[in-house]
Predict the structure.
Amino acid sequence: MELTIGHLYPDLLNLYGDRGNIRCMQKRLEWRGISAHIKEFQLHDNIDFNELDIVLLGGGSDREQKLVCQELQSIKSDFKQYVEEYGVVIAICGGYQLLGSHYQIGAETISGLELVDLYTRQEEGRLIGNITISSDLFDMPVTGFENHGGRTYIGENVSPLGKVITGYGNTDERDYEGVHYKNVIGTYLHGPLLPKNPELCDYILTKALERKYKESISLSPLDDTAEIRANKYAQGRK
Ligand code: GLN
């Protein structure tokens, strides 16, 4: 078995170790004897979504988001088809915001991909710090680090990724965090996210393998002692 992971615009969308998510997916596949091919796409590269099993969009500053925004309009319809056909996407912070219809920064509007029913608006002050959430998808809490000026409002027809235990999440309300729609996960959690949240990583890998091979997949367990320790340590950080 093998999976191809597409990393979109790593030179622009890659904050706080988001690239480490790719390494984590690759290693957790390889440790199970599954090959992982990584394809990095730079701005203006042609992207054939039919070749991809997982797409990663990392975080970026407002400036970088503006730089990718125009390019996103040209890949939007292919990306939409991929998402509607249960293509797997993991989008972090700036990448998460770009999944939605737009990101409003004062009088300026950055157009998004319109893949998921959500929008983001920059509001007073930045939401910065360690964050822990609980998600119905996983037994373990999900932990990470957030730093965003945008507040994300998700639609009625999509679910949040989880509930905030500590930290902020989507808005100042400290109630919900991230989004889950079909096989798309959007979240504000950097860190990188996946190494200390192995259940989330395996969830993504399982969904991608099941979509590709059209069978139910049960990944063999790994020794996650270090990962679980890292998760617990991060949960306790202020
Ligand atoms: N530029 C966005 C914001 O500040 C996202 C930042 C990020 O990816 N950390 O809201």
Notes: The two ends are 41 Å apart (CA to CA). The pocket of glutamine is lined by residues 15, 59-62, 65, 93-94, 147-150 (CB under 6 Å).
